[in-house]
């Protein structure tokens, strides 16, 4: 192999600048590991005149993608431009030109990852995307290599920094949702349009990628049920806190008997759960394996240099594969077929907050209704709102099927005595009280 491996960058924004800095600052370590230098030769941008966050020779920049994709000297393309259609076209072109690709693009990998992987394999090229999930945390390699001997049963992730920041600020500082979101935007964690953060889609994309790799099964983005954090009220966080829980946007995936449950939803997590300690913009992924039991991977889920570490590590893997002549293998080959778990097989505990008439017999009607659905209560709180008129009732159920819970909820909403079911959330873990 030659004395240097040449990289072409598509994009020089937050992450691309980090990649340039990391390659420059860690050149000696890279050369020691690889026995060759890593050099960035061309960089695609949209605007040549924009001021950059990194020192770079002007003639490396181009607005013509062909200057990067058709340069015969370039071995590895790093795609850090974002977006879906153009990025996909460029990556497919790169594979046709027998160039390996490293991408940070969760939107693209969640939607078209399997197709891109097929194109890579067909052209005997590598395709890695460690940075697409949880930024600087080496979670994809942790799952694929570190836990390759185990059978992963469950993956739970706090994989969106913006929503974790908002919920932490609401919970610990009493900041309103709107103000916490504004702060997350000012601090730069949120996407330019934060809708995909707060509505859970960003986390869903990352969970689809995690699910594929953890369970070696095809997971489509549409398989991930999503609900976001809009509409969560401070009261729910306060009652949760009183009962020993903290609210997190949790990506949850579980696979047994070829049946998959995968979703992203606000969840009241027992404070004793390892994920409950993950605050502000930090990310963490909890993985439960048959043999290993509980593991957790924690760190920065975004940011210039943290994300660049994942990308440059992928580049190192590609170069090692080139050296060994083993490029073109899949990260993980899907070999289990998948069916989505029906609601009668999905078990969880639930928190419910409702307003009811404050009169004799109301609570026993509610509890009889849940008893009929085979659901028992684990914790109950009742507070009079207007003495003798309205009471606020909060309860947490024991484990029940989603099917039974949904039926109970429907009946609850139609009771005369129930004025409003204000909120309900999944509950995970046992609170110490
Ligand atoms: P960014 O700051 O907006 O940078 C995007 C870069 O790509 C810019 O340099 C832009 O050029 C260039 N670009 C975009 N579209 C282009 C086009 N059509 N033609 C030529 N150049 C184009 O984005 P980023 O935050 O670095 O994110 C890049 C990717 O990494 C995304 O897929 C993102 O989801 C992913 N990611 C980001 C983070 C993070 O912390 N930011 C973490 C994990 C993953 P100009 O500079 O000339 O405008
Ligand atoms: N908007 C994302 C987040 C950035 O808040 O986690 C990293 O993907």
From TrEMBL:
NADP(+) binds at residues 10-17. It is an enzyme of class 1 (oxidoreductase). Its cofactor is a metal cation. Pathway: Amino-acid biosynthesis; L-methionine biosynthesis via de novo pathway; L-homoserine from L-aspartate: step 3/3; Amino-acid biosynthesis; L-threonine biosynthesis; L-threonine from L-aspartate: step 3/5. GO terms for biological process: methionine biosynthetic process; threonine biosynthetic process. It comes from the Bacteria. It catalyses: L-homoserine + NADP(+) = L-aspartate 4-semialdehyde + NADPH + H(+). CDD domains: ACT_HSDH-Hom. Residues 351-426 form the ACT domain. The active site is at residue 206. L-homoserine binds at residue 191. SUPFAM superfamilies: ACT-like, Glyceraldehyde-3-phosphate dehydrogenase-like, C-terminal domain, NAD(P)-binding Rossmann-fold domains. Its EC number is 1.1.1.3. NADPH binds at residue 106. GO terms for molecular function: homoserine dehydrogenase activity; metal ion binding; NADP binding. Keywords: Amino-acid biosynthesis, Metal-binding, Methionine biosynthesis, NAD, NADP, Oxidoreductase, Sodium, Threonine biosynthesis. NCBIfam families: PRK06349.1. Belongs to the homoserine dehydrogenase family. This is Homoserine dehydrogenase. It comes from Oceanobacillus polygoni. The lineage of its organism: Bacteria, Bacillati, Bacillota, Bacilli, Bacillales.
């Amino acid at each position: 192999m030659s004395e240097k491996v040449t990289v072409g960058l598509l994009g020089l924004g937050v992450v691309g600048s980090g990649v340039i800095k990391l390659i420059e600052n860690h050149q000696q370590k890279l050369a020691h590991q690889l026995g060759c230098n890593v050099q960035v030769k061309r960089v695609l941008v949209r605007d040549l005149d924009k001021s950059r966050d990194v020192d770079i020779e002007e003639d490396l920049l181009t607005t013509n993608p062909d200057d990067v994709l058709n340069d015969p000297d370039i071995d590895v393309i790093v795609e850090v431009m974002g977006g879906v259609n153009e990025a996909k076209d460029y990556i497919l072109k790169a594979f046709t030109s027998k160039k390996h690709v490293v991408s940070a693009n969760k939107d693209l990998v969640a939607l078209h990852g399997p197709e891109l992987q097929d194109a890579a394999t067909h052209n005997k090229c590598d395709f890695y995307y460690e940075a697409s999930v949880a930024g600087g945390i080496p979670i994809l390699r942790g799952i694929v290599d570190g836990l390759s001997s185990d059978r992963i049963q469950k993956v739970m992730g706090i994989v969106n920094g913006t929503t974790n920041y908002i919920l932490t600020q609401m919970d610990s500082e009493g900041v309103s949702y709107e103000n916490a979101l504004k702060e997350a935007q000012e601090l730069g964690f949120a996407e330019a349009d934060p809708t995909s953060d707060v509505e859970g889609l960003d986390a869903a994309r990352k969970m689809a990628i995690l699910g594929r790799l953890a369970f070696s099964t095809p997971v489509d983005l549409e398989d991930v049920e999503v609900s976001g954090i809009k509409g969560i009220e401070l009261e729910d966080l306060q009652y949760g806190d009183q009962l020993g829980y903290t609210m997190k946007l949790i990506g949850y995936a579980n696979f047994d008997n070829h049946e998959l449950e995968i979703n992203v939803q606000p969840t009241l997590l027992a404070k004793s759960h390892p994920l409950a300690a993950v605050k502000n913009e930090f990310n963490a992924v909890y993985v439960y394996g048959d043999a290993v039991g509980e593991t957790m991977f924690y760190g920065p889920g975004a940011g210039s240099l943290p994300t660049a570490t994942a990308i440059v590590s992928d580049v190192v893997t590609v170069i090692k594969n080139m050296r060994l002549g083993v490029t073109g293998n899949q990260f993980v080959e899907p070999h289990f077929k998948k069916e989505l778990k029906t609601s009668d097989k999905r078990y969880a505990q639930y928190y419910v907050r409702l307003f009811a008439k404050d009169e004799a017999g109301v609570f026993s009607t509610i509890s009889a209704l849940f008893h009929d659905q085979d659901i028992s209560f684990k914790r109950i709180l009742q507070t009079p709102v207007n003495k003798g008129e309205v009471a606020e009732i909060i309860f947490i159920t024991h484990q029940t099927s989603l099917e039974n819970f949904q039926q109970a909820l429907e009946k609850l909403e139609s009771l005369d005595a129930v004025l409003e079911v204000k909120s309900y959330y999944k509950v995970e873990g046992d609170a110490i009280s």
